[in-house]
Amino acid sequence: MSSVLLKVNGVSKSFAASGKVSGRFQALMKILTSGQAPQGTSVIEGIDFEVRQGESLAIIGANGAGKSTLLKLITGVLAPSQGFIEVNGTTAALLELGAGFDPEYTGLENLKMNAAFLGLTRQEIAERLDDILAFADIGDAIHEPVKHYSSGMVVRLGFAVVAVVKPDLLITDEVLAVGDESFQKKCIRWLERYLEDGGTLLMVSHNMYQVQKLCKHAIWLDDGGIRRQGDVFDVTQRYLAWHERKDAKSLSNTQKTPSTSQYAITHLSIFNSEDESGGSTANDPTQAASAHDELVLETGQSLSVRLCIRSPDTRAPVVLIGLVRADGTPVYGVATDHDHHSVTLDENGEAQLLCQFPKLPLLPGGYRVRAHTLDPEGLRVHDTTERSLTIRGQTRELGMVRLTHHWQST
Amino acid sequence: MRNYPWRLLADLTQREIKSRLSHSAVGIIWLIVTPVLLLAVYAFVFGVIFKARAPEGLGFPFIVWLAIGLWPWLAFSEASLRASQAIRQHSALISKISINRSVLVISVLSGTFILHLVGYAVVLAILEIRGINLTWQGLPYAVMIMFTLYGLAAGLGLLLSAAQVFIRDLEQLLPILFMLWFFLTPILYAPELLPADLQHLLWINPMTWWIEELRAALIHGQVLPSLSFLALVAGAIVTLLTGHWVFNRVSPYFEDFL
User: Fold this and answer.
1) pTM of the full structure
2) Class of domain A4-244
3) In chain B, which end has fewer C-beta atoms inside a 10 angstrom radius, N or C?
């Protein structure tokens, strides 16, 4: 096992209220006497993780989850309120666009200063200057003041310095997004080679594609704590599914289905058809767990949907089953009358249906299975119920479904 | 001491000096012109208008007596004042880059101090050219005194820059306090001009010790350090240690309060 490069141990950070004059003075006195800042608004709490040499870790999470604060703590810009952080090696951080650049100075002067901040000697800077300039590739603009630079040029310069310094641990906070296509590609190529050469990367990004491409592990920060950590695909997929559900929730709050349905769905459960136990519990309608637990399947596994309906009269309703992505985008929908399947009611006016989707070609993400009852004419929706479904898988394919395909060199 | 980023400090100091010079049209010429003009203005106002006199029996014009005390004060006060604003000024850097933050304070302080030292040298050279016989054998001792003055300014600068992050009012208050301090120090006047019972009150002001010791070296030709030099060294060291301790204790929390 390679050595631990970064150790974050029980780290919490709270910001003291810094609005009032008297409060600030008291804070100063408290720090002087006790060496600790007064407690205030907690931003992150109880964070534990390790990064080993050669690892690549992404930190993802919604805005305000504490990602940047965590990075600031790791780089030493902020001091933790509790816990400790240990870094065994050189680090370089790109925390923000143009961090450490003085807009009044030329690109070249800023570049030298930034390299000096990262610990390079003048001689080393002189030796590597050509490399830095070649990487940044901004031409004669290097002699212009940075205040005249576009944001893309600033990022080029900042990344070029870091690229040439080659730290043991590289920390980036959503900075690559600014560069243009070709520079982003250049950076990603550089990062890939850096990782191949045993470099260690800690990055914050909202671009899950980049995250999956560059990182092996991920941490999902939510509201200051670690919601989930582990394999990058698992974490990012759950994170995206969570987002899609959140979007959907804010949409669906406005459209509630009427509860006084005539053709009602009394039970809906979904399970993995290859999983015997899942099938048997679903046979028991009193098992309410299926309403809360979400089903997790791998791409290519089979899905079964079981539902019970009740009809107020002797006529059987049309049943429609739909698969939508968690944000509401329809994937597939099919009704009993499309397939000319007739629902048969028992003497109580109830019916049980099982619909199977073998070898589900859905790509990883969050989905929902929806069941609707329509009147026998198939015109009006009477009842709607849904269950959450998460698809997992180690793939970077794009879209929602896997289409059968063949590659051929011609 | 060994882990201190001296190289970065040197780079930043150099940059501070360069930026002070290159942001004006003629740059380096101001290095000589400013002290000359300032000396001329003081000579006119105090020598011609106020007809101020140096202490009896000194045999020097007032302006010489003034200049020897004024430039060290300018170096000390401007360096401490600018240093006290350094952290607030560099807040963008502090919130994004992890560096030893005292470097930011000390580089501003050193740059300012060095520029005034050059001015001091120019002024002393002009006085020499104008035919005033300063006692150059006291120069090595004067240099030693200036070193302790730099230490005092560094300690004060660290202390004030840390305090300024928490107590923002200091930015307005400090220039006024320094002006008051200037008038309470015998720079524009000789201690002997005060009534006898007020004279020893002047010695409560540490700056009196420095200015008087410098005059002893450059005007009276004192070659060897006196006992009061020990007081200067002790004062500088205590201030430096205090400033350093406070700064180190508080600096991890700068970003929380900036």
Assistant:
1) 0.75
2) alpha beta
3) N
